[in-house]
Amino acid sequence: MITDEDTFIEAMARVLAAGMPPMAGRMWAYLAICEPPERTAAEIAERLQASRGSVSSMAQLLESIGLIRRGTKPGDRREYFSIPPDAARTLIDKNAEQMRSARQVLDAGLALTADRSPDSQARLRDLRDVYAFFEREWPALLDKLLESESRTDADASATERN
Predict the structure, then answer these.
(1) 5-82: which CATH topology?
(2) Range list of H helices, the chain
(3) Interval 60-111: pLDDT, tens
(4) Where are the domains of the chain?
C-alpha cells in the first residue's frame, strides 16, 4: 500500500525497473511529485539519500531517453532537472519498442526450436502471441490517447472562454 512519498518513490522505481536501474526510477518518481517541479542534483541526492555521482549518471540516462530535461535559471549557475510535458508519451514509445524487440527475440526463439514438439514451443508461442497482439494494437491505443487529450484540451479551452 502506498501511504507516503518514500513508498511511492520505491514503487515507481520497481515499475520503471524494466530496462532502467532502480535509481533512475526513484529519480523520475521524485521529480514527478516534487514541488516546485525543478530540482538540482544536490537536492535530488539529498532527498533520495544517493550520491551525486549516481544522480549525475541517472540524469544522463533519463535525459538521453527524453524522460527528464536539464535547464538553468537566470542568475543561477546550477542545473535543474524536471520532467518535460511529453515524458509520458516518450515512456509509452519506449514500451512499444520493447514490445517489438521482445516479439522479435521470441520469433527467433521459435525458429531456433522449430524442430521441437508443439508442446515444447507452446510457452514461447504464447508469450510471442501476447507481445505480437500488443505490438499490433499499440498504435490504435495511442491514437485513442491523442484523441482523448485533444478533447480534454478543447473542453478546457471552452470552459476558460465561458
Answers:
(1) Arc Repressor Mutant, subunit A (1.10.10)
(2) 5-16, 22-33, 41-48, 52-64, 87-112, 118-161
(3) 999 998 899 999 999 999 999 999 988 877 877 777 888 888 889 989 998 9
(4) 5-82, 87-161
